[in-house]
TrEMBL record:
GO terms for cellular component: cytoplasm. It is found in: Cytoplasm. Acts as a transcriptional regulator. Probably redox-responsive. The apo- but not holo-form probably binds DNA. Upon Fe-S cluster removal intramolecular disulfide bonds are formed. One of its GO terms (biological process) is cell redox homeostasis. This is Transcriptional regulator WhiB. The gene is whiB. Its cofactor is [4Fe-4S] cluster. It comes from Streptomyces indicus. Belongs to the WhiB family.
Length: 85
């Protein structure tokens, strides 16, 4: 997980990346977290890690919980399909 040392979020308030709720201040916090992700050199690695680890909360790799949910479902379906072969 050496990639985390290169992440733009190092030094940022971790709470920014874990907003509580989906309305009001949480929307602004999610957007602010995504702004940090936009300038991050390891966004793709972060998103890949979050998907592999099944991260269902927070902003990871420039994606919100809602944006990652379908990605996680698709990944789980692929894993189940690969096991049944």
């Amino acid at each position: 997980m050496e990639w985390m040392e290169q992440a733009a979020c190092v030094g940022e308030d971790p709470e920014l990346f874990f907003p509580v709720g989906t309305t009001g201040p949480s929307v602004r916090e999610t957007q602010a977290a995504k702004e940090v992700c936009r300038r991050c050199p390891v966004t793709e690695t972060c998103l890949d890690w979050a998907l592999r680890m099944g991260q269902t909360t927070g902003v990871w790799g420039g994606t919100s919980e809602a944006e990652r949910a379908p990605m996680l479902r698709a990944l789980r379906r692929r894993r189940v399909g690969a096991r049944s072969r």
